[in-house]
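Predict structure. Chain length: 254.
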Amino acid sequence: MPALSNVYPSLKDKVVFITGGGSGIGECLVENFIKQGAKVAYIDIDESVSLALNKRLEDTYQATPWFKQVDVRDIAELQTAIDEAAEQLGGLDVLVNNAGKDDRHNMEDVTPEYWDNCLNINLRPHFFGMQAAVKWMKEGASVINMGSIGWMRGRHEMVGYTTSKGAIHTLTKTMARDLGPRGIRVNSVVPGAIVTERQKALWLTPEIDQQFIDLQSLKFRIQPEEVAAMTLFLASNDSRACAGQNFIVDGGIV
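Prediction complete.
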């Protein structure tokens, strides 16, 4: 797809913190916020891919994001990273709760430990990330939670993941009410069938790819850049009247 064309002057010099920013949709978010002139901080569990990303961004844009290796299941480390980035970069204007893991699993194989791990990766960090971020945020700040159409469609063989993502809908609605009086917007972006390198490596086949396109109203493969486009809008001042909403980017599946 062509490069994103919108430029949001309100994003220049804004401090943006992204979880799971080293690869996939997160990598695309990091790069496009850098292109907007934002001060970007991100965490990821994979240090090697993140350092490679930073090198590429430095070579391409002469800008290096703030990065720390963090496993979002460790809430203390997550919150410490948010505090460190905000202190070093001068506050916090945008939080993007992006980190997640969409493993497939049969219902019969799910143990209590596996179930807890799904929620610990895909849901719990969203709330505790907000808890740490809001003390740094001022009026006009924005929180963007990454959802999934998986729960809306009742996607089979991933009940731990879809349950987590369904709960993000409620979390977003509730926190929008709680933080709205402070002038902080909370919304979620809901991607559809997005092709990432992880998807290609683990389970995407030409047949599965075609199945998703057949389900879509728009007959083209949705890319991470489409998710980034919506996220940039919600982070910018142009979305000042948007709160508590799910913004679906799926080509018309649901």
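Summary: The first strand starts at residue 15 and ends at 19.
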